[in-house]
Amino acid sequence: MPMNQTYSNPCIRCGRERIVSKTSKERVGNSVIVTTLTVCPDPACQKEVERENRRMRDKKLAMKRKSEERAEQRKATRDAVRAAKNA
Ligand SMILES: [Zn+2]
Fold first, then answer.
1. What pTM value is reported for the model?
2. Domain extents in the chain
C-alpha cells in the first residue's frame, strides 16, 4: 500500500471525511508500523464519537469480565465435584 494514500474514512456519526490528527511511527522488528489517528473535523462530533467508543469498550470489558466470571464458576463447580468424588 503506498504511503499517503488517500482513502475514504467518513465519520461514523456525521459522515464527514475524518482528518488525520496524529501519525506515529513504531519500529517493530524490521518493519515500521505507521499508526494514523483520525478525528472528525467537528470537535463536538468527535467528542460524541469518543464517548461512544468508550461506551462500547466498557461494554466489551463488562462482557469479558462476565464470561471470565462464568468460567471461574464453572471451574469452581468442577473442583467442588472433584473434591466431593475424592472425599
Ligand atoms: Zn463527525
1. 0.60
2. 19-86
